[in-house]
Specification:
This protein is of the alpha/beta class and 248 residues long. It has a single domain, classed as Spore Coat Polysaccharide Biosynthesis Protein SpsA, Chain A (Alpha-Beta Complex). 26% of the residues lie in helices and 25% in strands. The radius of gyration is 17 Å and the shape is globular. The two termini are 22 Å apart. It holds the Pfam family NTP_transferase.
Length: 248
């Protein structure tokens, strides 16, 4: 695969949520620091960004923010900036808008701190490198990483989008022809959110705006995607990781 543009060098990682469905685990720690397969969930995300060539990442914090900051200070390989939401949770859209103020106007990755994948093939471009090469701002507002539902662990079974042959995305409810799940990572230019509110809002508003403009695209990830939403899901995720490591 040929990467058509320069690597994406900056990212926003959404890590400020309360993790209410993970209680009682999250009664004493933030969800992104819950260890799965021997390391905190957020480290899977940060590792993927670092391996893709990202140099600077903003991480927003709220729930047990001090624990998050301490952990992030110890992470090597990325310059990590903190977007502090201790006083007010901004939802995912508002969190991105606030975090963007700490970055420049170049293309960014946006990722969730508690969604990650395993099983990429060594020696090939990573999923994020592929996504950076796929993203074409001349015809796309956002390019999402997506996954087939059969390649997920811990997901609720709901499809999000339908993907056309060229990667164009529409809502699954409007077109159930080729279903995919949003895998918690996308590339975009910050200018797409120039008119966004500064109050809390859901980024799905801008997913739908991009769809309406015919400018939301996606590509299917290599490997297996994990989401860990409840304490009971931890064991299932760890078993999936053990299985992949056994056959790697």
């Amino acid at each position: 695969m040929t990467i058509r543009q320069a690597p994406i060098k900056q990212a926003m990682v959404l890590a400020a949520g309360l993790g209410t469905r993970m209680r009682p685990v999250t009664d004493t720690m933030p969800k992104p620091l819950v260890r799965i397969g021997g390391k905190p969930m957020i480290d899977y995300v940060l590792d993927a960004l670092r391996e893709a060539g990202v140099e600077r990442a903003v991480v927003n914090v709220h729930h047990f923010a001090d624990q998050m900051e301490t952990h992030l200070k110890s992470y090597d390989g990325l310059e990590i900036l903190i977007s502090d939401e201790r006083d007010r949770l901004m939802n995912n859209g508002g969190g991105i808008v606030k975090g963007l103020k700490l970055l420049d106007r170049e293309t960014i990755f946006v990722m969730n701190a508690d969604l990650f994948w395993i099983g990429e093939k060594p020696g090939r471009p990573t999923n994020l490198q592929r996504l950076a090469g796929f993203f074409d701002p001349d015809r796309m507002d956002m390019a999402m990483l997506c996954v087939r539902i059969e390649d997920t662990t811990g997901h609720n079974g709901v499809n999000d989008f339908s993907m056309s042959a060229d990667g164009g995305l529409t809502r699954y409810r409007d077109d159930p022809s080729n279903p995919v799940v949003y895998a918690g990572a996308f590339a975009m230019q910050p200018s797409f959110l120039e008119d966004a509110p500064t109050d809390p809002f859901n980024i799905n508003t801008y997913f739908d705006r991009a769809i309406a403009r015919g400018r939301l695209y996606g590509m299917v990830l290599d490997g297996h995607w994990l989401t860990v939403g409840t304490p009971e899901a931890i064991g299932e995720a760890e078993e999936t990781i053990r299985r992949f490591r056994t056959f790697a």
